[in-house]
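Anyone have tokens for Glycosyl transferase 64 domain-containing protein? Sequence:
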Amino acid sequence: MLPRTNVHSRRMTQRLRIAAISAVRSSRITLLFCCLTLFLFFVLASKTPSFLGWEHEDLSPDYYDASRKGYALLINTWKRNDLLKRSISHYTSCPGLDSIHIVWSEPDAPSESLTQFLNHVVQSKAINGRQIELKFDINKEDSLNNRFKEVRDLKLDAVFSIDDDIIFPCSSVELAFSVWRSAPDAMVGFVPRIHWVDQSKGNTNQFIYGGWWSVWWTGRYSMVLSKAAFFHKKYLSMYTNNMPASIREYTTKNRNCEDIAMSFLVANVTGAPPIWVKGKINEIGSTGISSLGGHTEKRTECVNRFVAEYGRMPLISTSVKAIDSRDSWFW
Ligand SMILES: *[C@@H]1O[C@H](CO)[C@@H](O)[C@H](O)[C@H]1NC(C)=O
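Reply: yep, here.
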């Protein structure tokens, strides 16, 4: 009897062991499956506006009214009324927008129909009776420095400088604005550029301007371009009244580099790098000067010219980038 029971129980143990092993295996698969499902659920759920009752809270228009904290849109345009209409229609829907200043440098004044259209857009988009002010800043001479002319009667400190051919969603604009409020002396923008010492010249006072690819490759930048940036309004008056006139003359003559000049000015004041904010760029026009050949060489010339004016290189590079923590998955 005993041996038989022994054999039997040994078989039982063996069977149990096999069952146990496959149970472990299948439970691992189940666990993996559960994790995957959970992960997918979180990814999908986080895309819905209200996730587990945690709202993605956007700042309401009241918030801006109560604290009188908003910004002025300073939009640079040139003979592209259709783009201007599209941009302004878009930006008027962003909370925090207080006034719009169109930098107009064409020989002809804005047409009646354009003015009417824009006024209508601004009035129809007014939220809670919040009236957005719309003004044309008309310039006789056609100079790139026009975009940084002082704007009279600006109630608020923040200026959002933008070209007529790029659109950022309001969420990106709000993010940049809140970054600017944390660092109101800094230039805060979406389009970073870099400079570096020209090693080939063997001279530490010669620099090279680096475009988008250079920033992408190195992860570093030392300027944010004024075609999409927040800055304090005081820099407008400094650009026109305090910056060496030779720099303004140079940008007018060469029809380039007013944005580099502004970056130099701010860096000279703050002694700190600008701040790059992540934003979704939507370019609606495609005929900017940056698409022309020889652009980088001209920009390099500007950098070296301005370094000579300042007697030193004021730009400071960094690799910091501000993002919305609600859009980043893992800490
Ligand atoms: C740079 O800033 C200093 C003061 O911090 C000022 O004296 C100087 O004029 C500025 N340079 C230029 C070229 O604006």
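The two ends are 65 Å apart (CA to CA).
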